[in-house]
Structures are given as C-alpha cells and as structure tokens.
Specification:
Tetracycline Repressor, domain 2, mainly alpha, elongated, homodimer, DNA-binding, 225 residues
DNA sequence: ACCATATTTGGACTTTGAGTACAACATAGG
DNA sequence: CCTATGTTGTACTCAAAGTCCAAATATGGT
C-alpha cells in the first residue's frame, strides 16, 4: 500500500520515534515530527497519509523485525522448548535494540491495534509462531500440553513484552539482566519453570470457589481461611 | 485532588467507557462523551479538567477496584502461592467484570502511564503486592526464589493482563475458560507450573547462540536448585 | 423566608493543530 | 529542452478542545 517510502525519508523518520515514545502520538504535533526529522511538513504529507501513517510505518517496520527474528528462531533446530527460548530471546533482543519503537507500540497500543494492518502484523509476528511452538512442544514432549494454545501465546506475549518494557522504559534498576541475552534467559526460565516450588500441590482446591460471573459477589477476591 | 465528583455524575461517566474502549480516547469527542452520558459539556468541564481527566477518573476507579481486591487476596491466609493465585483470580475477576474499562486502560496505556497518579495507582494495585507475594513465597517455601521480584511482578502482570484482554477484547473463542474462576485458575497454573515438561534440562545451552549483544552471560537468571 | 454560595447549563467564543491547496522550484530521464 | 515526478514554503480550511459568561437553579445555614 504505502511501502514505497524513499529510504532517505524512512531513516529520518526514526528520529520521530523517540518523541512519540515519550509523549505519545497524540501529544506529538506534526510540526514536531517535521522539525525532529528535518522533513518539511508538506513533504511528510506528500508521502504519508497523516499522523497515523507515521506510527504505522514505524511499527510495521518493528513488527517485521520481530516477526523475522522470531520466525528464524522458531524454525531453527532443537526441541520446541529450545526454539521457544530462542523466539523469546529474539523478541527481547529486538525490543532492547529499539526501545523507543517498543514504547511507542505499547503506549499507543490501542491505536496500533485499530490499524488493521498492524493488528495482523502483530498476530503474525508473535502470537501465531508462539502458538505453533506450544503445539509442537506437545508433540515432541518438551512442553506440557496447554488448553487453548492461542490464549497461552497471548499470555506469554504479555509477559515477555511487559518484561522488556519494564527494563526499557521505567527507570527500574534491573538486577535481573543488563543485556538481552541474560534478560531473555531470565524470562524464559520464569515462563518455562513457573514460580511455584512443587507444582500440583495446591492445584484444584479453589477452582470453583470464586464468583459466579452473574450473581452479586462481595468476596470475589480471597478464599476464606 | 479531584476526588469529589458527585456520584450522580460519576456513575453516568461509565457510559463513556464503552466509547473510549472501542474508539480510543483520541477518537472520542468530548461532545460524544457528553451525549453518551447525558451530561452537558459545560458541566463536564465544570468538574473535570478535560478529556484526560475523564480517562483518569475511570481508570483510577478501576485500579482502586483491582487494588482493593488484590490487596484482600494478598493478605488472606494460606501460603504465598495460594495467595498469589487468589490475587490473580481477583485481577481476572475485576477485568472480566469491567471489560470496557480494561480495554480503555490498555488501549490508552501510554496516556495512562503518563498520568502520574495513575502510574502510581497501577504500581500500588498490582505490581507491588505481587512483588511482595513473590518475596514471601521464598520465605514460606511455596515459591521458588526469583532474581529481581519487581521485574518478575511486571512479567506476571503482563501475562495476566494480556490473557484477560485476549478473552475480553478480541473475539477469540476461548476454549480455556468461560468464566472468571476457570480462566484465572488457568493462568495461575500456566504461571505457577511453567510450560516446560522437565525444567532445567535445556537451561544454559543456548543462551549465547542468538545475536550477541556484547557479553554472553548464561547464568544470571535463576538460582540453581 | 432570606441570603450566600455552589452547581448546572446553553451558547458564543478562542485556540490549537491536523490536513489541504497550490504555486514555485528542483531534478531526472528521455 | 521538456515533461514526470518529487520537494517545499505559505496560506488556507476545518474540526474539536477548551474557555467565558450570564442566566437559571439548587443547597444550606441562620
């Protein structure tokens, strides 16, 4: 559709990512983008449909990067669990290499997912490869079976993304990891091994105790002692 | 600060949540909100500082709800792992009860986290209780030790939130869970037990294989058994 | 009942920023 | 040199946020 941007301009455009990441797209005036990139407003509008198109271009690019890296990781050798780790590593690496783009993506997630192309790209870049890995892991025995791998992929995506963000964005002094390799290893372990010491021990005891969706229910939160 | 909104108005305001969830705050005109709530624009501006304040009010409320429920869960009885499960259940329950608010929160996450009060509320409602649970779990032996519980809390938050969203928002036909109880049980298990069949087997073998961001450091993540 | 103060509301107004129109200019390929 | 296509400054339109204000209405204290 709009993938004919002169590379000169495309590269300048990245200068706008930082602005958008910090202030959000809404608070970023087109004139700011123009000034930050050195591209005059008229030229911007000559190539792009508008403000959203700027975001769309930047994020499509990011998602291509991640999608590519994840795809490579997911189709590499080894067990599904090893490839899952590689995929997570790929995502984290790209995130840490492009912190501004990621902040922009997450900060304007609503807008992003409302742009149809981007929603698809997101799906293709992350969710669907991870979902497949989960399924393959059941086959090769390296991963435990999970109901609804699609939803599980979302959960994993959420965990990885949020982790990457909290390292990237917030000034969190992160003890866990200073570089992409150790951070991704860290998240992978968290997701792979879980947080509990001996799985199964308290499983199933509470399952039906919380709320029945419809009825008034003051005690949604904690199980009685 | 602005917490004296007449309840009459406050309740009407929720009618705007759906609009915001669907179209994003930016695409929602103040006149739309006015019309949807039945509150005339002038009155809105009499009580609220502007558009952002609408979002801020709604989300502050949501975060109070979640924060309250999570706090109750986290301070209940049982092991840390049981309370972690209860906390997750609380969050999921509130999310499923207020899908519009959640979509609004996530959709305009950037804006939300840029509102200082909300960033703090988010921290207080989720992150910090979960972080404490993780720490307590190490003490009582029900959870395995994790480097940097603060970041781990973010990861868990990401997973839970994304899961809730993918059930709520996208038309995903979710096999995993139709109600809050079973969904939260499902996420808890995922996080508690991990996705891998026999933990530790492939740890450390690949850490440095994908792209080298400077130092290969395969061991920072989890403590040995 | 009376007054003071706060709330509600309609309507006109100001301001800001997105997006458009267009003419002048540049550049390239034939 | 001449036409295509890209570049850019300037001036414009237009929608929506937010402000002002004054008249109506409620609220509460004495």
């Amino acid at each position: 559709m709009a993938r004919k941007l002169p590379s000169k301009i495309a590269s300048q455009l990245y200068a706008a990512a930082e602005l958008i990441a910090e202030r959000g797209l809404e608070a970023t005036r087109m004139d700011d983008i123009s000034e930050a990139t050195g591209i005059p407003k008229a030229t911007l509008y000559y190539h792009l449909e508008g403000k959203n198109a700027v975001l769309e271009f930047l994020l499509a690019d990011l998602l291509d990067l991640i999608g590519g890296a994840v795809a490579v990781a997911a189709s590499g050798g080894g067990t599904a669990s090893e490839r899952l780790r590689a995929a997570i590593s790929a995502q984290i690496s790209v995130m840490l290499e492009h912190p501004h783009l990621c902040q922009a993506l997450v900060g304007d997630l609503g807008r992003a997912t409302r742009l149809p192309d981007l929603a698809l790209a997101l799906e293709a870049a992350f969710l669907s490869p991870i979902q497949h890995l989960l399924e393959q892991g059941v086959s090769d025995g390296s991963l435990r079976p999970v109901d609804d791998p699609a939803t599980a992929a979302s959960s994993i995506f959420g965990a990885v993304t949020m982790t990457g963000l909290s390292v990237t964005a917030s000034g969190h002094r992160v003890r866990a990891a200073s570089d992409a390799a150790s951070l991704s290893e860290w998240v992978y372990r968290l997701l792979a091994e879980g947080v509990v010491t001996n799985p199964g021990v308290d499983a199933g005891s509470i399952a039906s105790r919380h709320l029945g969706s419809t009825s008034p229910d003051p005690g949604t939160a904690a199980p009685p002692p």
